[in-house]
Amino acid sequence: MKNDNNPKRYKARRSSSNATSTAPRRYRSNNYQADRYARLRPNKPVASPFKKMLSLMIIFFVLVLAGMLLYANNQNMLEEKFGKDSMIVKILSRLSLGNSSKNSPEFSFPFGPRRQNILLLGVDSNGADSDLWVGTRTDTMILMNIDPRTKTVNAVSIPRDSKVFLPNGMTQKINAAHAIGGIKMTLKTVEETLGVKIDRYIIFHDKGVRAVVKALGGVDIYVEKNMHYDDYSGNLHINFTKGKHRLTDKNVVEYLRFRHDATGDIGRTKRQQWFLRGLLVDLKKPETVVKIPHIISVVNKYVKTDLSTYEMTQYAMLATHFDMDNIEIAMLPGGPNRSGFISYWILDPDKTQKVIDRLIYRKKEKGQKEFYTVSIMNSPSRSEDAKLLKSKLQEAGLKVICTGSTNSTHSQFISHSDYVTIDYYADLKKDVPDVKSKQFVYEPSNYLCASSDFTVVLADEK
User: Fold this and answer.
1) 143 pairs with which residues across the strands?
2) What is the CATH number of the domain that holds 449?
3) Is 427 helix (H, G, I), strand (E, B) or coil?
4) Which pTM was predicted?
5) What tens digit of pLDDT does each residue of 297-329 get?
6) What whole-number distance in Å separates Cα of residue 68 and Cα of residue 98?
7) CB 106: neighbour CB atoms within 10 A?
């Protein structure tokens, strides 16, 4: 199923405890019964209207495909044959199999690459040796929008404690949907809450994450703080010291599950984003490409998906071509709230809509601002780097309105404005190379220093 061109609005309603939710949505498909068109008269076979129509469609698409293969990759021949501004030139150029234009990433062809929404889920153990997918909650929820044509990916993290209305009318944390109604309820809950259509899903069990990391030989990550926690009843033991680590199948799940600090579930969500980035970095390594078929076969037991093996292989290969600076991530905005002994993450309706419009529907503001404002946050060891960056940004015509220190251990480029996009970031890197190789994050609020258009975080990752 293809994505709509027009954003479907995120709608929220409040419960008696000031929770947000969404009005139910219905996605209907048109089903036509062709049998009533396929009747044959006795002793005189006659082609039905349906068959005639089908034949014409097949002929049409074959001709279009032939045009793509023969002409679309030869612009000179196209222009000489039909004229530079003719409709056929524009159409075939747009459909070209070799066309890498970023001007129309939303164009979709029936049997060509198109953008898809894929819901990535990570489930915990149900404490039993039975079905891995029954009665399990989703510790990880990431909605990805992948565009094969432009080789870009956007990722929206959904906090597991987000308070929502389930399709059965219950008010619950969103991670309970899978435990109560399985993948069907999970998909419907996300679709109705965010106003999106999910094309595919991938569910990883904890054991599947371990299997992937083992097959890769480990994943590099920077642990931002000392992490120590023991839960003997849940058989969970976490022991990390601050600094660079090569996560293995023995400790990767422990890192991803840690949330026993002041940041709680939100800190865990950010660590999941950092791990995903580290995983993609490893997938881009030449020595990893040859391992992809083996990785897919190894994790098959611990992954539940409606992607075919062929599709999984193609997406894994596509991941090797991702530019890490072109990956935009965000977390659904909101705030913590407690109802009795239960803590929730209450989604902010307006800001959540902004995130969905931008990262999933890829809606962009037209034009540019007259001038842009910048904040710079740096760890104590990078104060000189911050001064140098400030000078270069000012030389490039930007206004640095705030500087400050931070304990962050991950360098980031954080956009707070609709006008600060991936494209803007690409242009800025040409003028100010010092902002390269930063994790691109969209946060419509949560200003670290001042109400600037974007913030550059210079962290000590040594």
Assistant:
1) 119, 156
2) 3.30.70.2390
3) helix
4) 0.70
5) 777 778 889 988 788 878 877 877 788 788 899
6) 9
7) 14
